[in-house]
């Protein structure tokens, strides 16, 4: 376990980097966004996630790379929600119209505190005062990254609030298992029969629809190269009707002789094929990232849940403990 200063924010705050390792995995996490900055598997030369060796890109083109986003991940339409009869006006940081990932000062953009660290785990904490980004309730959050036998990289997020509020966290890494310029040669499998159709601003239209016959049908392994230039992939796939105490099998990603299995307690998985990326700063490995350089697999409650009574609830009661577990296992094919 090593801790070092990764860089300095414009306001003078230091951003720290903690590196943990065990069972053939090495992960580096930075306090900005509690972000997974680098991930390596023994015997594999390239990183398994997109990231940057310097802080500056994380303030611009690398926004949300590897971050823990919240207090409400994804989108809330018009930045409006109602709780206990009170209409909330939330921060509208997406085109001035909708809330995205908790607003312009959401957790994925904040500099968390380094709370605890050991050889194979690191814990970070953040505190959001009541009224932050328009949400009621002062909230305390703790995110712990751990490496376990498997090897397995596990993220556990705990949160509590002193008032009824909304709570929905997601992990926003872009994965690339073969080190190539795009994820075209990756095979993706997702255990989802339905997805949420969205409008042109990526706001859910209503009830889930079957994935059958759409470009979002990943029930059997799909080579991504055949879909990257088709309709946009930036949707919530419905992997369950509600949150669970124990993680369920959600997805499998395969490329370059590696397999990543994803398990999560969350009922949704936002799949985003990184359409917006354009070459800029050098990433890990020295080259910039272009379109489709990685794929985000974001375990979450369904987007805009506060405005849909029939979606899994994002409500958190005062004193209630929110607990999310997302686990990523890695397997190397001996023939790969």
Structural features, described:
Strands 10-11-12-13-27-23-22-17-20 form a nine-stranded antiparallel β-sheet, with no helix packed on it. A six-stranded antiparallel β-sheet has the order 16-25-24-21-18-19, with no helix packed on it. Strands 1-2-3-4 form a four-stranded antiparallel β-sheet, with no helix packed on it. The model has no long low-confidence stretch (mean pLDDT 97). The protein is globular and about 60 Å long. The chain has 336 residues and is mainly β. The protein has a single domain (2-332), classed as Beta-galactosidase, Chain A, domain 5. 0% of the residues lie in helices and 41% in strands.
What's this model, at a glance?
This protein is mainly β.
Name the descriptors.
336 residues, mainly beta, Beta-galactosidase, Chain A, domain 5, 9-stranded antiparallel sheet, 6-stranded antiparallel sheet, 27 strands, 0% helix, 41% strand, globular
CATH fold assignment: Beta-galactosidase, Chain A, domain 5
The dominant shape is globular
Largest sheet composition: 9 strands, antiparallel
Order of helices and strands: EEEEEEEEEEEEEEEEEEEEEEEEEEE
Strand content is 35-45%
- Give the mean pLDDT: 97
CATH architecture: Distorted Sandwich
The counted number of beta strands is 27
Q: What is the CATH class?
A: Mainly Beta
- List the strand order in the largest sheet: 10-11-12-13-27-23-22-17-20
The whole-angstrom Rg is 19 Å
With helices defined by DSSP (H or I, 4 residues minimum), what is the helix count? 0
State the end-to-end CA separation. 30 Å
> Which stretches of 5+ consecutive residues score pLDDT under 50?
none
- Secondary-structure-derived class: mainly beta
Helix content: under 10%
Number of domains: 1
């Amino acid at each position: 376990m090593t801790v070092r200063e990764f860089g300095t924010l414009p306001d003078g705050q230091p951003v720290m980097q903690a590196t943990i390792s065990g069972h053939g995995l090495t992960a580096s996490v930075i306090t900005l966004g509690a972000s997974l900055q680098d991930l390596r598997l023994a015997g594999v030369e390239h990183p398994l996630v997109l990231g940057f060796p310097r802080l500056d890109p994380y303030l611009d083109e690398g926004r949300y790379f590897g971050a823990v986003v919240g207090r409400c991940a994804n989108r809330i339409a018009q930045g409006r929600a109602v709780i206990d009869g009170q209409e909330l006006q939330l921060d509208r940081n997406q085109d001035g119209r909708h809330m995205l990932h908790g607003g312009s000062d959401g957790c994925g953009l904040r500099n968390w505190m380094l709370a605890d660290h050991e050889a194979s785990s690191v814990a970070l904490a953040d505190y959001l005062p009541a009224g932050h980004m328009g949400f009621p309730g002062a909230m305390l959050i703790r995110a712990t990254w751990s490496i376990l036998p498997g090897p397995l990289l596990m993220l556990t997020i705990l949160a509590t609030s002193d008032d009824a509020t909304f709570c929905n966290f997601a992990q926003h890494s872009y994965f690339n298992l073969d080190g190539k310029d795009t994820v075209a040669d990756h095979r993706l499998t997702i255990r989802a029969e339905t997805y949420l159709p969205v409008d042109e601003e990526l706001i859910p239209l209503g009830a889930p629809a079957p994935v059958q016959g759409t470009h979002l049908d990943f029930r059997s392994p799909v080579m991504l190269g055949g879909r990257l230039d088709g309709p946009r992939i930036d949707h919530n796939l419905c992997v369950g009707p509600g949150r669970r105490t124990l993680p369920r099998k959600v997805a499998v990603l395969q490329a370059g002789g590696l397999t990543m299995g994803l398990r999560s307690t969350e009922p949704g998985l936002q799949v985003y094929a990184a359409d917006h990326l354009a070459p800029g700063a050098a990433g890990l490995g020295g080259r910039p990232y272009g379109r489709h350089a990685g794929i985000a697999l974001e375990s979450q409650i369904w987007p805009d849940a506060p405005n849909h009574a029939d979606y899994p609830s994002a409500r958190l009661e005062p004193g209630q403990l929110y607990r999310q577990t997302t686990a990523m296992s890695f397997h190397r094919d001996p023939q790969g």
